[in-house]
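call fold(seq) -> tokens
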Amino acid sequence: SSNTLDQIQLDLAGGLAGALSVTSNTVGEQAAFINSGGVGAGTSTLTGNNFSGLTSSQGITSILKFNRIFNRASFASGADVDARLNWWGCNKGPGAAGCTSGTGSAVVSAWLLFTSETDFRCTSPTSATVYLNLSSYGDGFIIPESVAPGLATVSTTQGSVNPSVVPIVGSGSAVVTLPLAATPTITSQLDSATIR
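ret:
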């Protein structure tokens, strides 16, 4: 829990007998949970992790929720994989251009969406707050318990942004300071998703 690793790998030959929980880790190159034997009675639960390399699960019943799974995935058949409510690198979902590919037989729908809202009403006439959200899916249904991680950038064609790089754990925000009478274009980006 709460580690930063190049790689995490679990290799089993006889099946997972109990519960395995992997929570709030950042893994850069590979997160692999592989069982070469029969599927055991246990379940692996992966929640709130930031996986930016190959993410794979094979032969282990798995529940993946509120993770950032960006780049490549390999969910081989042999055990149930419930991978709903994750961020796959773009709003169109796994397999779309710019999104994670290779989800195989895993259940992935519905996935998290990256949204951005700018509020000019609750701040001064020369500033606005940009609210970033990684905790909605479908028609904007909000999941308050989302802890999906990410690192978004916010930019403006006029004025300045603080912070311009926003850590997201389900949500985050930045303040845009503008010159008087400005009409800026404010852009928020997370992985392959860009919102203006």
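The radius of gyration is 19 Å.
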